[in-house]
Amino acid sequence: MPNHKVTEVVLLACGSFNPITNMHLRMFELARDHLHDTGQYNVVKGIISPVGDAYKKKGLIEASHRLEMARLATANSDWITVDDWESLQPEWLETAKVVRDASMRIILRAPGIKREKVTSVRVKSKMINGPQLMLLCGADVLESFAVPNLWKQEDIAEIVGFYGLVCITRSGSDPYKFIQQSDDLWTHHKNIHVVHEWITNEISATHVRRALRRGHSVRYLVPENVIDYIREQRLYSAESERKNSDIVLAPLQRYTRASSSS
Ligand SMILES: Nc1ncnc2c1ncn2[C@@H]1O[C@H](COP(=O)(O)OP(=O)(O)OP(=O)(O)O)[C@@H](O)[C@H]1O
Ligand SMILES: NC(=O)c1ccc[n+]([C@@H]2O[C@H](COP(=O)(O)O)[C@@H](O)[C@H]2O)c1
């Protein structure tokens, strides 16, 4: 009989999901298997949190459509759900705030928790027996931590140090080296779970949108019911791809623009 404690985990993935792809869904399955294989964690839930309309990324279509596609894509999953809180906010929110809010709501839902005891998740959650939230992302997001002015150092420290990160490898990325070379990340390396994806799969939403604009098939890259929705709603055209292209770029958009035009 194992005598160590198994921690319950909720995985939270933040992103554009413009549109959601099969690889976004695979990320959750890969992360869950990896954490279960350690024998230390039991993943009880996965949450997809699409970014709101205020995230001025080129070609980002309305959050209502991105949410609906994520809901359709997860309709058959018994553990992955979609959270609309972030997408409904009038302003763009740093990921640390999204993680904090989601964690607070998860803890408040745990049995036997009294609201008045949960004034600060960061301080109190160590004393509360609720599941632990971890941020789930691809290696490109981890490597974006090094882009100047993109992430606040205290946000990275909070996400990695207090919550935890599960990072899926992408081709061209080397998260192990990246963590090894960063003093800040190395300090918390025990909280960073790198999941090596052996069946390399470079599906990206950018490639899917490009194929759609050209009238090419995206079958087997995106769930069937999402393809039907895209067709019915006539989403992703040359015009939608021009959205936000006239924005004067802040550091955040400069980075996101660069990553989406590759
Ligand atoms: N092929 C992939 N392998 C690993 N992680 C991925 C892959 N595709 C997306 N992700 C991860 O999914 C999360 C949400 O992705 P998001 O929709 O923001 O990016 P994307 O699919 O790369 O889109 P875009 O091409 O529009 O930038 C991010 O953490 C991203 O790193
Ligand atoms: N400082 C931050 O908190 C910060 C910076 C850049 C991207 N992000 C988030 O990372 C996710 C992925 O962004 P991209 O789709 O632009 O790669 C989004 O949810 C976005 O909000 C957060």
From TrEMBL:
Documented EC number(s): 2.7.7.1, 2.7.7.18
Pathway listed: Cofactor biosynthesis; NAD(+) biosynthesis; deamido-NAD(+) from nicotinate D-ribonucleotide: step 1/1; Cofactor biosynthesis; NAD(+) biosynthesis; NAD(+) from nicotinamide D-ribonucleotide: step 1/1
Main location: nucleus
Keyword entries, A-Z: ATP-binding, Magnesium, NAD, Nucleotide-binding, Nucleotidyltransferase, Nucleus, Phosphoprotein, Pyridine nucleotide biosynthesis, Transferase, Zinc
Localisation per UniProt entry: Nucleus
Pfam entry (one): CTP_transf_like
GO biological process annotation, one example: NAD+ biosynthetic process
Subunit structure: Homohexamer. Interacts with ADPRT/PARP1.
Entry-linked NCBIfam families: nicotinate (nicotinamide) nucleotide adenylyltransferase (TIGR00482)
Record's protein name: Nicotinamide-nucleotide adenylyltransferase
